[in-house]
Amino acid sequence: MSAPTLRVVHLYPRLMNIYGDRGNIMCLRHRCEARGIGFELTELGIGDRFDSAAADLIFAGGAQDREQRNVVEDLLATKADAVREAVEAAVVLLAVCGAYQLFGRFYREATGMELPGVGIFDLHTEHPGEKAKRLIGNIVAELVGPLPSSGQGGHPPITIVGFENHGGRTYLAPGVRPLAKVRSGHGNNGRDGAEGAVYRNAYGTYIHGSLLPKNPAFADHLIGLALRRRYGDVELARIDNRAEELAHRAALRLRP
Ligand code: GLN
């Protein structure tokens, strides 16, 4: 069998890419190419249609309220149905912060305007207004449930680290699985100790930083999920993680 290829679709890379979220794409590319796995990137912006059969992994990053208002109409009109179809077909999705919010039921942003969401995650988000304290800082959280081994000796529980900066407070509907439990930092709303959300192979998170370079086991979990969905049994070879593990440990030391 020729080497597998990971097909990644990056939604709104120019409008939704704050706090280094593009670093997640660079990490996915590196962790594939270092293993001789092909990497194909498609960037989709305003007016571009999304083909649910063309993606193994979908990524969307964070944005300020203004960009979210600029994106949401196009997201719902040209991409939402196909993204929902892809997620129901077990395509992997990673949505960070502003994208995470827009993939819920709705986001009531700082002006009180309610932005309708794609509805992949059964959750909603409310921003208490520009004068409200933002949820900012370093975050350490523990993944809920083990990650199947991703060829990097993945073992439960796995700690994920990064940086968060959001005004919106996200509330999961009863029964929705959070991505992680907050150990230090704010997470979804600074109150219930939940961070992120999981639905099938779709992952939402508030963690910027970028998330994946600082959390190689989680990055490999996503790559492994996406490749196994398309190629069947794929084992990810071990690769040099020293830089990522240094970044992970440095971020752990930053926690308040
Ligand atoms: N604008 C949203 C909020 O303030 C998302 C911010 C972000 O993506 N970092 O909550």
Describe the protein in words.
- With 256 residues, the protein is an alpha/beta fold.
- The protein has a single domain (5-233, 241-253), classed as Class I glutamine amidotransferase (GATase) domain (Rossmann fold, 3-Layer(aba) Sandwich).
- Residues 149-154 have low confidence and may be disordered.
- The protein is built from six helices and 14 strands.
- The strands form three sheets. A six-stranded mixed β-sheet has the order 2-1-3-4-14-13, with helices on both faces. It has a four-stranded mixed β-sheet with strand order 6-5-7-10, with helices on one face.
- Helix content is 28%, strand content 27%.
- It starts with a strand and ends with a helix.
- The chain is globular and about 55 Å long.
- The structure holds glutamine.
- Glutamine (GLN) is lined by residues 18, 62-65, 68, 97-98, 101, 127, 165-168.
- Glutamine binds next to helix 2, helix 3 and strand 9.
Q: Ligands in the structure? A: glutamine
CATH architectural category: 3-Layer(aba) Sandwich
| Quantity of strands, as a count | 14
Q: Kindly report the spatial arrangement of strands forming the biggest sheet.
A: 2-1-3-4-14-13
CATH class: Alpha Beta
By helix and strand content, what is the structural category? alpha/beta
SSE series: EHEEHEHEEEEEEEEEEHHH
How big a fraction of the residues is strand?
25-35%
Q: What is the quaternary state of this protein?
A: single chain
Regions with pLDDT < 50 over 5+ consecutive residues? 149-154
Largest sheet: 6 strands, mixed
> What is the CATH fold-level name?
Rossmann fold
Give the proportion of residues in helices.
Answer: 25-40%
Mean pLDDT: 94
Number of domains: 1
Q: How far do the termini sit from each other?
A: 49 Å
General shape: globular
Write the CATH homologous superfamily: Class I glutamine amidotransferase (GATase) domain
Per DSSP, the total helix count is 6
Compute the CA-based radius of gyration: 17 Å
